[in-house]
Amino acid sequence: QNIITNHKLRESGQGQHQTYALGIKEVWEIEEGKHKPGSVVHTVGWPLDMKTYGGSFLYHLDDRQLAIGLVVALNYRNPFLSPYDEFQKFKQHPAIRTLLEGGTVLQYGARTLNEGGFQSIPNPVFPGGAIIGCSAGFLNVPKIKGSHTAMKSGMLAAEATFKALVEGSSMDLYWENLKKSWIWDELYRARNYRPAFEYGFIPGMALSAVERYIFKGKSPFTLKHGKPDHEATEMANLHLPISYPKPDGQVSFDVPSSLYRSNTNHEHDQPPHLRLRDPAVPESVNLPQYAGPESRYCPARVYEYVSDENGDPKLHINAQNCLHCKACDIKDPKQNIEWTVPEGGGGPGYTVM
């Protein structure tokens, strides 16, 4: 992020800002009779509201394991929305609950996804280095798939690096070859699906259908992204609080239970890796104007408002809980939170994610 900004790589690339989504995921071990190895299910919409883009994924893996998750676009407007609680609500759908009942959760985790696609690709070359994979934003959003493009971009960067070292050519060859590769073509064809939902769920579905079945990815126009994710958050007085059902402990769970399954850990005496640019902003801006959205968009409940000795609410940061999803760095309305790499390799201890 800092490299792209400092070297103005977005401006010399496709020009538009990056837009993100938060993916929340669990891996389950389900009953033998419900397991269908290789089965893939994607959904869009519910339980999210009609103005919020997002959808779910469900993959039947080996050994009776099932990966299930919900992806919520971080340009959502309602500051009362909680991606974590939306995921718990999603699992209560009859088709999902029936599948999970009798099973066991093995692991929980979360991370943000780059969803800007073609419009947001930066120039990936800067003095002394190159940007590849998800760092550049090569995710195919409608497929929720980016491993293949990440690997190909790494191959193209390696080939350009080899020629630069052996033949003295420029690393700009990576950028040139990237635009000639199937990555460029694939992301170009998928470019209009994500921004189509800026207009709402139904217009988004209609535009996506036209793009898919009529233009087949070759429409004569390219849609633009809306506001950056943090600017999309609206004032709390424009929305009503959302009442989420209490977790049942069978298919839906509270945050502490999920965090236990993430195996996340940080040394307590290390320098804080979550920093406030202005310590006064949470109490002076976020809480009165946005009802403290950091206490809800974080899927690890790192941020919570607690009363001080005078009874006044103060933001408390539980950095120990952090899953390194980076949603706070992206969604904070005033961009006041800076996520930095923690000391000593702390963080979630994923084994099957």
Descriptive account of the structure:
The strands form 4 sheets. The chain has a 5-stranded antiparallel beta sheet with strand order 2-3-4-1-5. It has a two-stranded antiparallel sheet with strand order 6-7. With 353 residues, the chain is α+β, with helices and mostly antiparallel strands. Helix 4 (147-166) crosses helix 5 (172-180). The protein has a domain at 241-345: Alpha-Beta Plaits, CATH 3.30.70. The chain contains 13 helices and 11 strands. Strand 3 and strand 4 (65-73) form a beta hairpin.
Write the layout of secondary structure elements.
Blueprint: H1 2-6, E1 20-29, E2 40-44, E3 54-60, E4 65-73, H2 83-90, H3 94-100, E5 104-114, E6 125-126, E7 129-130, H4 147-166, H5 172-180, H6 182-189, H7 193-196, H8 201-215, H9 229-232, H10 255-262, E8 274-276, H11 281-290, H12 294-297, E9 303-307, E10 313-317, H13 327-331, E11 337-339
Antiparallel strand pairs: 1-4, 1-5, 2-3, 3-4, 6-7, 8-11, 9-10
Protein name: Electron transfer flavoprotein-ubiquinone oxidoreductase
Function: Accepts electrons from ETF and reduces ubiquinone.
InterPro entries: ETF-QO (IPR040156), ETF-QO/FixC_UQ-bd (IPR049398), ETF-QO/FixX_C (IPR007859), FAD/NAD-bd_sf (IPR036188)
